[in-house]
Amino acid sequence: MGKPGADVLSTPALLGLMEGACIQQSEPYMAVEHTTVGYAVDGLRHLAPTPVGNKVVISVELTEVDRNRLTYQIEAHEGEQRVAMATHKRAVIPIQ
C-alpha cells in the first residue's frame, strides 16, 4: 500500500496477521458449533517498517476471559526488533 517503491509490510496487512494469530490460538479450543469474531483493536502501534520478504513473528497471549469475550496482547517481531503491538478483543459466538 502507499507509494510505489515503499515495499514494506503495510499496517493493514500486519493487523491481518495479528488477528489471524489470535484466531489460530483459540480455534482448537472452540466447540465445533462456535467460532470467534473480532470486535476491537486497541493501542495498535506499528513501530518499524518490515521490508517485503523479511520474516515477522507474531506472539499472542490470551490475557482475559470475560464470559464469551476474549482479550489478547499481541506483539510482532522482525528478528529481535519489536515492530508492532496491540490489544485485540474477540467474542465467542455460535456459528448458526
From TrEMBL:
**What Pfam family is a match, any one?**
FlK
Concerning SUPFAM superfamilies, the annotation shows: Thioesterase/thiol ester dehydrase-isomerase
Among InterPro entries, the record links this protein to: FlK (IPR025540), FlK-like_dom (IPR054485), HotDog_dom_sf (IPR029069)
Record domain Fluoroacetyl-CoA-specific thioesterase-like: where: 5-94
**Stated name of the protein:** Fluoroacetyl-CoA thioesterase
